[in-house]
Amino acid sequence: MPFTDIRFISFRNLDDASLDVAAEKVFFIGENGQGKTNVLEALYFLSYGASFRGSPVSEVATRGRSSFCLAGKGKDNRNGSDALIDEIRLVFDSKAKDIRINDHRIRDRKELVERNPVIAFCHEDFSFAAGEPERRRFFFDQTAGLVSPAYIDVLREYKRVLKQRNAALKDRRYDLLDEYDIQLSGVGSHLVARRARLEDELNAVFALRYEAVSLLGSEVTISYRPSWSPEWSLDEISARLKAKRPEEIGLGSSLSGPHRDRWVFSRDGRDFSSTASTGQRRLLSLTLRMVQAIFYTNMTGRLPVLLLDDVLLELDRGKRRRFLELLPNSGQSFYTFLPGEPWEDYRTPSTLSLLAAFFDEEKLRRGGRFAEFFGSWKAIAGERLAAHSRISDIDKGLLIVEAEHPGWIQLLQLRQSEILGAATQRFPELGLRGILFRLAREDVSDNGQTVDKKREPPPDIAASDQKETAQTTSEPAFIDPELQSLFVKLKDSMDQKAGDR
Predict the structure, then answer these.
(1) What HEC string does 428-443 produce?
(2) Which of 128, 184, 491, 494 sits in a 20 to 30 Å window from 12, CA-based?
(3) How far apart are CA 243 and CA 228, in angstroms?
């Protein structure tokens, strides 16, 4: 459901206010801690009645408050029409949560899932690639539940029976196990069958998209490894449960069933996530969310709302471009950016940029100039050099530039005075007084490689001269004194407002 406006009351660190978000793309630009992610979390709460961060609802209210309220309006496009407007309201008071759509009280969150499809790309998703098996099961169960309320019912029933069976094991009520085995095998077999189909459906789009962004050179696929074979009959499942029973009695826990299933990322027949780099695993989690959105649209014919929380920061320039090119169509999309990111490069005529939601007019002007500066590197350095380098940070008037090869650093150094002059002429308010060139820790070209020795030098630089030019200084913090001062003043103002409440 595309949103037209949202309102917050006592929600996290956000001021009590309303925001007009009636646009295909909405950008929230601000420093860390200013509330960008909280706005996305509010949208997710309105869509699903919960937080994508996994935070207990009791911890979400503004500090010192025990309740909060969220409200939003959006277009009901379930029937292919945007004519109908829904109003959603969520009120949490102490321990009770009340969710209403057009004054109709929602008693089961399944109603929200069917009505308000939202896909959130967030930092916590990294656990899908690098976390415990339970986190991967959560993602794939969530994916199946987005398109099938019946799957949610079956999963709930399985968890109910499993809980009772575990209780019988712990309480030594072994006389109940035969009956629970019948129930567990019946419900669990449906989960296994649906998960097996899901593996095929997701692999139809996952492998191609991961390779298109990563340029890894070989296929990475999703493998479902169930505790019970999808081909087993109910009798065969019951036999497996009985075979495990002596061990289960000793441990007091059920050891066989869909709750023990595993999902694996495979490359060349091996577990890829166990050997993948941090960047490759981060891309696995982002690709999963991308495929989740595509799968939802393919199965329902509807476009979900996308929430992307600072995820582009974690990709190098080439992967970022390829990821955005492959991002599926959506009913609406919300992005968060830091002021220094080239967010203006991603704008379209229909994009709404809400820097003013977090900064006053002076911060709006300065934040826009920072974004403009980071996006002007090609004009400052020239197209050839800019294609093999990038602005990394500004630290106390020192412009820090990363290049993909020592040879490119040498060429940049030869034009250092010219580049600095062009930068200060275009952006005198930044107070730039020098440039530091260093070797990029990750490839900034489009070949997807991250190993320095594989990067190609410029054709006109001798290989023997390259090593001397590499700079390996440690990573500086992104600090501009004047802007930092404004952020401190803003924080003090917000703290004072919180105290006045």
Answers:
(1) HHHCCCEEEEEECCCC
(2) 128
(3) 13
Q: Has this prediction a pTM greater than 0.90?
A: no
DSSP for 102-118?
A: TTEEP-STHHHHHH--E
pLDDT (0 to 100) of residue 156: 96
Identify the DSSP state of 252.
T
Between the CA of residue 297 and those of 197, 287, 498, what are the distances in Å? 17, 15, 42
Residue 16 is predicted with a pLDDT of 86
Q: What is the dihedral angle through the alpha carbons of 283, 287, 288, 291, rounded to the nearest 10 degrees?
A: 180
Per-residue pLDDT of 10-40, as tens digits, reads 898 888 888 888 889 999 988 877 889 999 9
Q: Which residue has the tokens 């962004």?
A: 213
In 361-463, alpha helices (H) = 361-374, 377-381, 383-386, 406-414, 416-426
Range ranked top by mean pLDDT from 219-228, 459-468, 477-486: 219-228
Q: What burial class does residue 246 get, using C-beta atoms within 10 Å of its C-beta: 0-12 exposed, 13-18 middle, 19+ buried?
A: exposed
Q: Is the pLDDT of residue 362 over 60?
A: no
Closest CA to 194 of 228, 234, 161: 228
